[in-house]
Specification:
Length: 446
């Protein structure tokens, strides 16, 4: 079968194994070599791709609903194949919410753990691993091991953010958050320059949620943008507003891109026009309330929007650097090289604890995510940005990556890579779990 992740690059022909029971998964793992788990394929690059075989866990639910919620201790026990959409549909009407909400709800729980996802509240709530009390993991021996921040802790931290390379996440116990309402009280701040955007994002980073859209295609006002910050509204605030934002379902996208568009759709002119339209539409918005879909998941409104980039696909480049000056330098390089990102998101991360074996992406500092259509010369430019990020002691996000060099990755993640490989060698000595990403970045044991 032909597989690609969200960026449609790279693609690979591989064998996919679906609907295997726990016993079948264990015997597959014991008898085979060279496979990787796949959830919903919402990583952008090659993290869940492999030339040999993919264990597709997105449909696997090991009990009827795939999840059980205990309201007394706010813990959700959930199978890795369940989608975040299902968690929202089941519990958000009761104002119980998944502790970390990324930019799409169409991911599996296994994928969320393997990427140790972050959301707009990283500065307050950290990454998903902070909210996980236990993971049931099937390792390379076919054995199920329970890992927690205390028990088999090296394997726990290598699994969170480990991109599926330590074993199959079968289920996990996750502490949920309680909100007072299902509506967000938001603040939208329009900024006409990069400096103003950074200053306003910093200033509003004391709100529970905060992230900024950045326009990296405007010529005169390059780096202008809009800060979206907010928190869940109190029940009193919602009573005042009525229930116009109460949604029954959290999974319905009304629009869809039916087929792959021509790769010429995004060019200098259309990208500028698209960004300007977004800027001016939001400039006129002054609604202090937002729905959960509008605030967290605006991209999910259009199914298969990745097809807008055409068959050749696109790359999402997300980095984090500790220094504001380095962020500004990179934005200047993007302008000088006319890289024209279709979409840019700026987020200021809070402190991120270090754990032995953990290769999660976030660190305290400035994170920028940008979408680039695949084009001649793009990788050379991104290699150059990698060097700036590595020199600054920053990271590029593996969940979005499909092209970084192993040596640059090593420079960025440093000692954490050696620790990760030690843990991998202990639990997967023959490197059974491997992906295109692990081969490219030399994250394989053998
Ligand atoms: C529009 C969009 C917005 C996004 N926004 C954010 C964001 O705000 N923050 C953020 O952190 N990320 C974000 N992401 C990235 C996304 O959250 C991660 O890539 C996530 O891993 C995707 O989950 P998936 O189920 O689709 O996994 P896949 O893409 O199928 O797999 C991703 C990785 O998880 C591993 N994996 C999957 N299931 C299992 C399992 N059961 N056991 C072991 N390993 C497994 C795979 O091997 C692979 O390494 C975004 C992605 C998109 C498309």
């Amino acid at each position: 079968m032909h597989f690609a992740n969200w960026g449609n690059f790279p693609t690979v022909d591989t064998l996919s194994y679906n609907q295997l029971s726990i016993a079948e998964l264990a015997s597959f793992i014991r008898d085979n070599h060279g496979f990787i788990a796949r959830g919903n394929g919402r990583s952008y690059g090659d993290a869940s791709l492999n030339q040999h075989s993919i264990l597709n866990l997105s449909k696997v639910k090991f009990n009827k609903h795939g999840m059980v919620y205990n309201s007394a201790d706010r813990e959700l026990i959930i199978n890795s194949g369940c989608a975040l959409t299902d968690v929202l549909n089941n519990y958000f009407p009761e104002h119980v919410i998944f502790p970390v909400l990324p930019g799409t709800k169409k991911i599996s729980i296994g994928g969320a753990i393997a990427a140790d996802i972050h959301g707009k509240d990283h500065h307050i709530n950290g990454t998903l691993s902070k909210h996980i009390s236990c993971i049931d993991l099937m390792t390379a021996s076919g054995e199920m091991i329970t890992v927690t921040p205390e028990k088999n802790r090296d394997l726990f931290w290598a699994t969170c953010g480990g991109q599926g390379l330590t074993g199959l996440i079968i289920s996990a116990t996750i502490k949920m958050l309680k909100t007072e309402s299902s509506v967000l009280r938001q603040r939208v701040t329009v900024c006409e320059s990069l400096d103003k955007l950074i200053a306003a994002t910093l200033e509003q980073n004391n709100s529970q949620y905060c992230a900024s859209w950045i326009d990296l295609s405007a010529t005169r006002t390059h780096g202008r943008g809009i800060v979206f910050s907010g928190r869940f509204a109190s029940s009193a605030e919602v009573m005042e507003q009525g229930n116009q934002f109460l949604e029954k379902k959290y999974c319905n996208s009304r629009l869809s891109v039916p087929c792959y568009c021509t790769s010429k759709l995004f060019n200098q002119t259309t990208v500028k026009a698209f960004n300007s339209l977004y800027y001016y539409l939001n400039k006129r918005k002054n609604n202090p309330f937002a729905s959960i879909n509008g605030f967290f998941f605006p991209l999910d409104a259009v199914n298969n929007w990745n097809r807008l980039y055409g068959h050749k696909g696109f790359v999402q480049y997300q980095f984090v650097v500790p220094q504001k000056e380095v962020l500004q330098k990179i934005v200047n390089v993007i302008k000088k090289e006319k890289l024209y990102s279709t979409l840019g998101v700026l987020k200021i991360f809070g402190k991120q604890p270090k754990h032995y074996g953990n290769i999660s992406f976030p660190m305290e500092g400035y994170s920028l995510a940008m979408d680039f259509k695949l084009s001649h010369g793009l990788f050379k430019n991104l290699d150059y940005l990698d060097e700036i990020v590595a020199d600054a002691g920053g990271h590029v996000y593996l969940a979005k990556d499909s092209r970084m060099k192993a040596s640059t990755f090593r420079r960025m993640y440093g000692k954490a890579v050696d620790e990760f490989l030690e843990v991998k060698a202990k639990y997967d000595p023959n490197g059974k779990f491997c992906s295109l990403l692990s081969k490219r970045l030399k994250l394989n044991v053998v």
